[in-house]
Structure to design on (122 residues):
């Protein structure tokens, strides 16, 4: 099992798919990395040599922000919005949808399960 950027990559999958298990690498970045390193798209992780794994690891470390660094940057951006009391920061703080969605109905993912209101029933 190859370990890249602190993540165990599944060995039976194709390299392009397996790289997407790393937070911050999607389909486009995965195919870009394979093209830079010179690995064919149909190659599987268990067919990679140690040298190829090392080149993939070095490419990701030098060119992409992934895993812990990316999560930390995202958290700092949200914290910055909250500290300067921006509208988006207030929505984050209250646990409500941030991007203008309606909350009268729906928004259950952000608001949590529905809480009954006492005395509402007739």
């Amino acid at each position: 099992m190859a370990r890249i950027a602190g993540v165990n990559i599944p060995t039976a999958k194709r390299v392009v798919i397996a790289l997407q298990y790393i937070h911050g690498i999607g389909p486009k970045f995965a195919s870009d990395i394979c093209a830079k390193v010179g690995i064919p798209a149909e190659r599987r992780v268990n067919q990679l040599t140690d040298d190829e794994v090392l080149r993939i690891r070095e490419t990701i470390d030098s060119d992409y922000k992934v895993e812990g660094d990316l999560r930390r940057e995202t958290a700092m951006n949200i914290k910055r919005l909250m500290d300067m009391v921006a509208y988006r920061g207030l929505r984050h703080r209250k646990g409500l949808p941030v991007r203008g969605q309606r909350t009268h109905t729906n928004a259950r993912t952000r608001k949590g399960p529905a809480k009954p209101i006492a005395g509402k029933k007739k």
Summary: The chain has two domains: 2-64, 68-111.
